[in-house]
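Why Mobile mystery protein A? Reviewers of the renewal asked for a concrete example.
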Amino acid sequence: MKNNKQYLLLQQTDKKLEAFKDLKATVVPAKGWVNTFRTALKMSLRQLGNRLNIAPQSTKEIEEREANGTITLNSLRDVANAMDMQLVYGFVSKHESLEQMIGKRAKELATEIVMRTNNTMTLEDQQNSKERIEKAIAQKTNEIKSEMPKYLWD
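Here is what the prediction returned.
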């Protein structure tokens, strides 16, 4: 990577993601976390509502919004505080690291670029060998990873 500052930021962010890796396998309860914790604490809708200064029906609506994915982080934070808990959220990468994610995307782009050029050359009866194409893709991938151009995520 040409930009040391960008590389350092990438490394630091990857380090922060490490804390969430074990959570990848966590399954969200069907009724949501609010309902699960409230039930585990043997807290009624009325009791949680009182702690939130809202009606029991509004508490039920919060649980429903969480279960269907339309709740806000502020609402979740309020509920967590009312249950003497802390809301923590983050992202879990589908890859081993952000560098791996960038590498995958760079290879996709490089393949697209090289194959576009190769198709033009094929039409002109100047087709490259498979080895040459693979080498060109690898070189273009490294170039894209190094420069991290703005079009990387287009």
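The chain is about 65% helix and 0% strand. This is the kind of structural detail the renewal will allow us to pursue systematically.
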